[in-house]
Amino acid sequence: MSRKALLRRELLAARRLLTSQQVRDTAEVLARTASALPELTAARTVAAYVSVGREPGTHALLDGLRARGVRVLLPVLMADNDLDWALYEGAGHLVPAGRGLLEPDGARLGPGAVLAAGAVLLPGLAVDRRGMRLGRGGGSYDRVLARLAAAGAHPALVVLLYDDEVVARVPEEPHDHPVHAVVTPAGVRRFPGRDLPCGQKGDPDREGDPSQEGGPGRGSAPTAS
After folding, report:
1. Exposed/middle/buried for residue 201 (C-beta within 10 Å: 0-12, 13-18, 19+)
2. Across-strand partners of 71?
3. What pTM was estimated for this model as a whole?
4. How many CB atoms lie within 10 A of CB 79?
5. pLDDT by residue (tens digit) across 76-95?
6. I need a surface site. Which of 113, 146, 166, 194 has the fewest CB within 10 A?
7. Is the CB of residue 58 less than 8 Å from the CB of residue 124?
8. Consecutive sets of 10 residues in the chain, 225 residues long: mean pLDDT of each?
9. CA 54 to mean position of chain CA atoms
10. In what order do the strands lie in the sheet with 166-167?
């Protein structure tokens, strides 16, 4: 088993231990913190996703962005694991999809719709102290990030995680892209050298120290070895 696969298994096992109340409480904190991010307040279009299971919750954040007039794009998984996109029109317009996912029931806008996003919320299992993200391994968001890079688009890349999912280091491959920021219950953590696009500025008191402690974490952070 690869180092990435081992770390994914460890992180998913930790998520399965969370109670439903812990997931709900964390989602509320994440929504409040993420909604104030300059990356999101400056964006007219945000590409996001619908959390499922024990993922850090996004539902309240999606509703808050939409209520603020932000154009929210949600992914639609295609047969080849690439992502199409559709507008978020509210929780009542989400329908069950393959692999236990939820997707919007509106018109498909095409894989290139993500190029209009000023910020992209990426699902993940971990981020390391350099800003490198560990996903689930399906490759869908690798394609999205490659599409953005090929088009010269530079949206803010943000991940929502639990506190102990900011780890010392994740295994990386040449196609992996670093993120600008991670939001955890402890707050916003930024990464040295990851400049924000479009002149956006974060909180200087939280920048440059992604190992900062605090908040209702689940315990010590795992590392890949």
Report:
1. exposed
2. 45
3. 0.85
4. 6
5. 999 999 999 999 999 999 99
6. 146
7. no
8. 90 97 97 95 97 96 97 97 97 94 96 98 96 91 95 96 96 87 96 58 35 40 36
9. 14
10. 133-134, 126-128, 166-167
